[in-house]
Amino acid sequence: MEANEARVNVTYAGGNGDLPDPVSFDAADGDVKGWIAEALTGGGVPGITVNGAVDLTDFVVDRFAATDVRPYNLIQLRPKTPFGA
Amino acid sequence: MSIEAGVLVDLDCEPIHWHLPRDRNTGALPDSRQLWDIIWENRERVLGFAHSHPGSGLPGPSHEDVTTFAAIEAALGKRLVWWITSADNFVELCWVGPHKLAYGRGPAMYEPTWMQRLRVESEYLISGPRAVQADDDTQDQIRKEVLYGSE
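Structure tokens for the assembled complex are given below, as produced in the milestone run.
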């Protein structure tokens, strides 16, 4: 993996897995979500099985730079969690 | 004035985690990666999540609420129960479909035992005879009694 790339970890439909290929660490959120949605729809994320349409509208893209412990950049997709009156 | 609070609840309807982030305020519980991590870690035993809204009367979910409900359920791959409390009433919501944001009221036959603590954590002005015109110290004392019982 190149220094400007990141592993992409996804949590969806009760499963968790990584995209097979890294992406640019500074890719736009919309692009990252699009690639993930395409992979999920096509069954391309090991560990996640999706039945039906994939909607990532209310999901958040978190980014974590490489560290000594984790020597690669990480992008994680998770659901948003705010609540409001 | 109150401050929003939340609690994650397990299949026995017991609290798993009290969600009281530093950045919560009178109208919102902000997005929290930590909350998601806790939900995911407890995905096998989580029943639902409750949070508070300001004011009294029958509360209803906001658009922010229902979009969060749907996103969390999509990530978990299962449906949850969602409670919202006000100072004196609560609703129990679940997905009724078919639209992804169609959440309707459940039976809510019994108020869960942790609901009163959720109200305390939400810092509603405590109501009742003792609280009428109570000063701040008395309000604090009443809250402690609700949380920890009378000494």
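The longest strand of chain A covers residues 5-12. Chain A has one helix and six strands. Further analysis is deferred to the final report.
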